[in-house]
Amino acid sequence: MNPPIKATVENSASAVDSSEINQISVPIEERRRRKGIYADTCGRIRDMIVYGELASGDRINELSLCELLGVSRTPIREALKVLAGEGLIELLPNRGSRVSTPSSAEITNLFAIIAALERLAIESVAVIATEENLMYLRSLHDEMRLCHSAQDRERYFDLNHLIHETIINMACNPQLTRLHADLMTRARRPRFIAIANKARWEESVKEHDLLMGALELRDARFAGEILSRHVFKTGAAYLNSIETFTELTQNKSEKSKKLKKIKKY
Known about the structure:
Blueprint: H1 5-50, H2 62-69, H3 73-85, E1 89-92, E2 96-99, H4 104-128, H5 131-149, H6 153-170, H7 174-194, H8 198-216, H9 220-264
Antiparallel strand pairs: 1-2
């Protein structure tokens, strides 16, 4: 006996729906996979810039990055576009790309804005933070101090970044959080280079000690002054390190030229 027409139609419709869902799910999953690859590639190149594997002014060799990261050129190029938007990469028309070299004025302006935003945030946090919030910040601070004692600069830097980020988030101001996140992306490399100077690293740790103490005392004004000064000093330390590096490079170049002249004679 033939099945009722209605049931046949319903079964057929169900089969079509299932087939269409399977066809749709494949490209969605593929898009997700690609997004994951692009995000991972972008993050890895960003870290290479922040931690100095790619120095300011370095040309980007896309083929070398493909081999190093195990991806095709498409994720590399997509990542470079994102990093260019973050100010870390400079795209050169018909000439590839290179790691950006921000001017002294750009660095000064960048850290001035970050200092203002973080001062606003910390003064608010000193008033509204719960005891649990302060305990969490204290735990991050203590762990960061252990990293300093162990001279683990990369781990120290990651925790330091997390502390600044956490203070901003605790201020409960979404617009401030978005703006700060964008600026900190541009400032990560200068901030990391700044603590390569041992004296500045020691000073920075002491400033964080004062900051944590001011927070626990709920002294909003003092906390704001400490953090603002801390951020300004970090920007200045970066500029000093760049000037020192430039002077050393120039002196080395001049000595090399003199040696070449001596050899001629």
